[in-house]
Amino acid sequence: MKPNMAFDKDQIVEFVRQKSNRPMKVKELAAALDIPKPDYRRFRNVIRELIESGELVRLKRNRIGLASELNVVVAPISITRSGVGFVEHGQDEPDILIPERQLHTALDGDKVMVRRTGTYDGRPTGAVIRVVERAARNIVGAVHTSRHFVFVVPDNPRIHRDILIPAKDTQDARDGEKVVAVLEEWDDPNRNPVGRITEVLGFPGDPGVDMQTVVKSFNLPEEFPSEVIDEAERASAASIEEEAPRRDDLTDEIVYTIDPSDAKDHDDAVSVERLGDGYRLGVHIADVSHFVQPGSALDKEALTRGNSVYLPGMVIPMIPEALSNDICSLRPDRVRLAHSVIIDFDSSGEMQGWKIKDTLIKSRAKLSYEQVQQLFDTGKPDQDTKPVTDNLLVARELARILCKRRFAEGSLDFDLPEAKIVLDQQGRVLEIGNRIRLESHRLVEEFMLAANKAVAVHVFKKNVPFIYRVHERPDVEKIQDFADMMKRLGYSFPVSEHVKPAVFARFLEKVEGTPEEGFVNELMLRSMKKAVYQRDDIGHFGLAFRHYTHFTSPIRRYPDLLVHRLLRKLKRGRYPKQFGQKVSELIDRTANHCSETERLAETAERHAVKVKQISYMAEHVGEVFPGVITGVTGYGFFVRLDELGVEGLVRVSTIDDDYYQFDEKNYQLIGRRSKKAYRLGSTIEVGVARVDKAHNELDLYLAKAVEEPDLPPHKAERKGAAVRRRKAKAKTTSKKGTQSSGKSKPKTKTKTKTKPGTKSKPSKKTNKTGGPKTTRKKKTSRKR
Questions:
Q1: C-alpha pair distances (Å), 528 with each of 311, 476, 482, 545, 688
Q2: CB burial class (10 A; 0-12, 13-18, 19+) of residue 746?
Q3: Mean pLDDT calculated for residue range 773-783
Q4: Which end of the chain is more exposed for a tag (fewer CB within 10 A), N or C?
Q5: What is the bridge-based pairing of β-strands 309-311 and 278-286?
Q6: How far apart are alpha carbons 694 and 711 in whole angstroms?
Q7: Residue among 162, 159, 158 at smallest CA distance from 80
Q8: Cβ–Cβ < 8 Å for 133, 53
Q9: What pLDDT, in 10s, does the model give residues 668-710?
Q10: Whether the Cβ atoms of residue 696 and residue 612 lie closer than 8 Å to each other
Q11: Coil, helix or strand for 578?
Q12: CB of 270 closer than 8 Å to CB of 204
């Protein structure tokens, strides 16, 4: 075999498949491939990478086999709240289902080796043979002490076993305290996992403990290393005078920032002016890349974090505040370094041209969204908006034009409510609700979208590798699921492999103003794929943009920081030769990592909001609120409270006026006798029955009869005719009944029979060791 071929992964796998008649040790495989001794270490590393990817598997006595030939799969496992595991098995294959009894000692996120065992309901099933690699995790939970044992009950509902803590590893944690634990040992599924407590957070309800549990649960970064802080402080103290002559001086331009009222870092500013019949927009972004040098400790830490994380009452920044809140913040009346995109538009909002520049700017005003909105609403400027009033009104004109054009081209506008949480100084919740989306918010959004689009088109035309923000077309199966759901609500949605964004946009216009508008928006969003970073420019489906990237937030998103660096490298139209040879690998590595950190941050942020919402609702048990049904299952239905934005569950076991059956096809619960239906989109009044802070669950009860969602005219007319027919039939039947003997047959009670072949659940096993085997009580999962 040729030397280069020996290090080609595809060809190694093919060699093992075609010419290796049995599993071999690495040295035997190297000998069969004629690998020279000096190259053996490199070859061994390639084999290790193939094992990590799951294409090859390590067997007993360190032999290497082909996963496909051994009927095994090596991949991370995802375990649901109900205790069932799923392992991915190729892009076009359904996930392998792992029953709870076949999980062995796997925990959610572990890389496992799974053997295929058969199929169930058309889905492949399997059993975990062994855990190949434990996921790095903190286990956050509450300490419980007994006479002989200490154990931690995990907060994470996907971890179904309690963690036994030896006496020497308790950190003197007291019963009921929240702690952070790590897994030390678990190789026997008949025993409880053993761990040790690494940190005691405090009792639930203590100030800051709730958000600390979120930070620890998701392994979010906390304090910056000292060398990173030192580097940031040195960078922030640097003078910009030496850099100033190399930049376009825009300090005489009318530039201003618009941010939340409590914002400390101002990383984007705008300027707008009329240009003949059109407009000139300037989007000026803090030049973070000038202060954060590639390969520095500051840069490595920013890349590791990937993005800032925003939790209620706290921010985990990507770069230290010495930079983000000072030299890289576009404060008013301060000269700052910026990376600017200047775009010319015609009167219809079409881009006519753009320039990307390194600039000097000086903001004239620091404005809040509320201040700008007040000017728009009243026409009366306050002290801050007065110096830039004329510019703001021109900016409003342009933003409206851009918005109208974007929607006309099919861009989607998911007008989903954003949670609003007001805290006191101790972190206690004073108020929850939904943030109001103002026109001033849309103004800034339109200008940032325009800048990001211009940068993407600019680089695309150069035909060089770049990092794009892409959003794939949704899978046709997901579109079909969405269409089926909408059909139950009386709407028709076309299904096509080549569906265009405009089809979704027009549908959103159709449901605008209806009671079900909010959750239809949410269901449509769920049918979409997740936007990610990648080198392959496939466009952004949701925005209906052929080219798009992220340029406007380098303080809080690392991909934006990389975009600024790449633009600077492209000043002559091409990357320098040496940099160009490695840029693709740099982009791919950054894109994959930052897509992952973004997903983690979004999940943590949603969880943190839920924690605060549940905390607030604990003070309102027994109170009644209006809401809308957003999900229906066999065990109940979910209701989102209108004004508060929090979601809870009405369990079917609490509805005592009838026996309710789950109509899965139509996403509704129907009363067996009354035919009363609880379906998606119905408005309803519910009361708060119970709040479970430990598991972030809100139980609701019915307070008022359900109201069905408004149907489209043709559906409403059809339904009305059906009701009239039923009434007429009932009237006829009633007349016939009066002519009979007058005696009705006695009602007989029927017993519900158990289906043949069903078995009762086995009793819990007794732990073979001295310790108690405690299995977490399963919580009902929310599946839609």
A1: 25, 10, 10, 16, 33
A2: exposed
A3: 38
A4: N
A5: unpaired
A6: 40
A7: 158
A8: no
A9: 899 999 999 998 888 899 999 999 988 889 999 999 655 554 4
A10: no
A11: helix
A12: no
Residue with tokens 């690699």: 133
pLDDT in tens, 143-161: 999 888 899 999 998 999 9
In sequence order, what are the beta bridge partners of 435? Answer: 418
Pairing verdict, β 697-707 and 647-651: parallel
Q: What one-letter code names the amino acid at 436?
A: I
> Strands 150-154, 163-165: parallel, antiparallel or unpaired by DSSP?
antiparallel
| Cβ partners under 8 Å of residue 478, min gap 6 | 527, 528
Residue 589: is it exposed, middle or buried by C-beta count within 10 angstroms (0-12/13-18/19+)? exposed
Instruction: For the chain, state the CA radius of gyration.
Output: 30
User: Encoding tokens for residue 64?
Assistant: 């290497």
* Block residue for tokens 């559906």: 715
In this structure, the number of other CB atoms found within 10 A of the CB of residue 432 comes to 22
Q: Which of 210, 239, 434 is nearest to 312 (CA)?
A: 210
pTM equals 0.81
CA 613, 615, 620, 622 dihedral sign is positive
Of 402, 435, 443, nearest in space to 268 by CA: 443
The pLDDT value given to residue 695: 84
Is 265 in contact with 325 (CB distance < 8 Å)?
Answer: yes
Q: How far apart are CA 441 and CA 415, in angstroms?
A: 12
3-state secondary structure of 204: coil
Cα distance between residue 113 and residue 105, in whole Å: 12
Residue type, 710: D
**Which of 236, 319, 314 lies closest to 561, judged by CA?**
319
554 bridge partner residues: none
**Are the C-beta atoms of residues 214 and 184 closer than 8 Å to each other?**
no
In Å, how far are 514, 525, 661, 670, 678 from 666, measured between CA atoms?
A: 19, 20, 12, 10, 10
Write the pLDDT tens digit of every residue in 732-747.
444 444 443 333 333 3
Residue identified by tokens 């693709």 is 584
- Those residues whose C-beta lies under 8 Å from the C-beta of residue 298, and which sit 6 or more positions away, are 228, 231, 232, 235, 292, 319, 320, 323
* Cα gap 199→216, rounded to integer Å: 10
Q: Which of 523, 521, 517 is nearest to 631 (CA)?
A: 523
